[in-house]
Write a structure and sequence with these properties.
3-stranded mixed β-sheet; 7 strands; 6 helices; 4-stranded parallel β-sheet; alpha/beta
């Protein structure tokens, strides 16, 4: 399969790179592939999901100069089905290894909430440097809000602590605890 990126996407990403990195020294991250699931009330069905294809991804990196690439390996935005994630670990190995070693780009997994510790560690071994776990953080917050409290300040404080607990747990899992 050959994926041709519309010139406007490459041009737009190049413009973002220029304005964010060149002018403000900020890192530029892009997402290639299409994650299934729901995020911000937008749903992508399983049949519409697309795994990241290594060759167009490498071309996109060359054309745009991005620093980090969020890949789709079967991960999803939002909650996983009861059967769990259908991540392609054989695919992960090839894509992540190639992206990390050949291009020096950071590899990111969006939709990492709910992935097993084993899969997270496997991804880290293969070069993933950033995981997005917003669904788990939001869930902790919403569950804490539903518990009774003395007053609004108490409820909000509990919600904030619940989020902090998830973040601390994930930082430990990702190997970033105690680092800046």
């Amino acid at each position: 399969m050959v994926l041709i990126f519309p010139a406007r996407i490459i041009s737009h990403t190049q413009n973002l790179y220029h304005s964010w990195h060149t002018q403000k020294n900020m890192m530029v991250e892009a997402e290639l592939g299409r994650l299934s699931g729901t995020e911000h009330d937008l749903t992508v069905e399983d049949y519409e999901a697309k795994l990241t294809d290594i060759f167009p991804a490498l071309e996109f990196i060359d054309e745009t100069g991005i620093h980090a690439l969020a890949v789709c390996i079967g991960n999803v935005h939002g909650k996983y089905p009861a059967t769990g994630p259908k991540s392609q670990t054989r695919f992960t190995k090839g894509v992540l290894h190639n992206l990390c070693s050949k291009k020096g780009v950071l590899v990111v997994l969006h939709g990492a909430s709910g992935l097993s510790e084993k899969l997270i560690k496997e991804c880290i071994e293969r070069g993933v440097t950033k995981f997005n776990v917003n669904t788990e953080v939001r869930k902790a917050y919403m569950e804490a809000l539903s518990k009774p409290g003395k007053d609004l300040l108490h409820v909000m404080s509990n919600a904030k602590e619940a989020m902090k607990a998830v973040v601390a747990e994930k930082r430990h899992l990702f190997g970033s605890a105690g680092k800046a």
